[in-house]
């Protein structure tokens, strides 16, 4: 695959100031795409990320701090992308939050926030990105679902509902764009050692009196047969593959990268 697969194209990755989103943004930049970052963080840190991307890959970057639970802020971000880059060619809906509790104890405001950020935000970015993609007859929409878009776990009702919904939304988007040069697919990762997951590892190590390494092995052993974490770089490589010509007829799939989790 050419190192410049995405030269002169622009990728917007939501939730891309750390973790999976940043890994995917880096992979798309390495393939030549200009990058629109989104997420929370100190401006100094975000400026450093932008400078690194620009220097390492020779691409242009921009940043918008849209709160992905707010439709008006999402619309403002998409407008900035249009002004800065002439629209979004590759849309990666990655922003997400999590809360763990039994259904009867689940805080209503947490449910609403998870559905808004993990699911509804993808509707808003997609509806606003499609007109310019259709005008160019080219686009890639990549939704970061989860293995929890395919199977469930206890105490994660809102997250599982949102991710199943995102897989369904992916299929509908793919069907509506089937006669165009736009594709829409979902990536469904298993455990990825993001800062969020590291907190779960730390909590397990503390609760069970384990070393951090043993806590990681314990976490993986429950769900992920490979015993290894998926990496942001691996997810980024899959996103770039979806953007290549080889991905032209990959439409509406939920592609799990999960060390065998869903195969069980």
From TrEMBL:
SUPFAM superfamilies: NAD(P)-binding Rossmann-fold domains. GO terms for molecular function: 3-hydroxybutyrate dehydrogenase activity. Pfam families: adh_short. InterPro entries: 3-OHbutyrate_DH, NAD(P)-bd_dom_sf, Sc_DH/Rdtase_CS, SDR, SDR_fam. GO terms for biological process: monocarboxylic acid metabolic process. NCBIfam families: PHB_DH, PRK12429.1. Belongs to the short-chain dehydrogenases/reductases (SDR) family. PANTHER family: 3-OXOACYL-(ACYL-CARRIER-PROTEIN) REDUCTASE (PTHR42879), 3-OXOACYL-[ACYL-CARRIER-PROTEIN] REDUCTASE FABG (PTHR42879:SF2). This is 3-hydroxybutyrate dehydrogenase. It comes from Undibacterium parvum.
């Amino acid at each position: 695959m050419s190192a410049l697969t995405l030269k002169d194209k622009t990728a917007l990755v939501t939730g891309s100031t750390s973790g999976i989103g940043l890994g995917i943004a880096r992979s798309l930049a390495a393939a030549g795409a200009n990058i629109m970052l989104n997420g929370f963080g100190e401006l100094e840190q975000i400026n450093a990320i932008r400078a690194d991307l620009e220097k390492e890959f020779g691409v242009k970057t921009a940043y918008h701090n849209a709160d992905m639970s707010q439709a008006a802020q999402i619309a403002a971000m998409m407008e900035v992308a249009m002004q800065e880059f002439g629209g979004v060619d590759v849309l990666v809906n990655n922003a997400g939050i999590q809360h763990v509790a039994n259904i009867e104890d689940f805080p209503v405001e947490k449910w609403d926030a998870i559905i808004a950020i993990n699911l509804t935000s993808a509707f808003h970015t997609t509806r606003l990105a499609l007109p310019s993609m259709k005008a160019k007859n080219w686009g890639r929409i990549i939704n970061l679902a989860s293995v929890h878009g395919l199977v469930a776990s206890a105490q994660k009702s809102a997250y599982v509902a949102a991710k199943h919904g995102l897989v369904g939304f992916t299929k509908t988007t793919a069907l509506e764009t089937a006669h165009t040069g736009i594709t829409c697919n979902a990536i469904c990762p298993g455990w990825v050692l993001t800062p969020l997951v590291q907190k779960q590892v730390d909590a397990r190590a503390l609760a069970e009196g384990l070393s951090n390494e043993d806590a990681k092995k314990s976490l993986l052993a429950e769900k992920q047969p490979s015993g290894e974490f998926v990496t942001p770089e691996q997810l980024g490589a899959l996103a770039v593959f979806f953007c290549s010509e080889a991905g032209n007829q990959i439409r509406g799939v939920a592609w799990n990268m999960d060390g065998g989790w869903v195969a069980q």
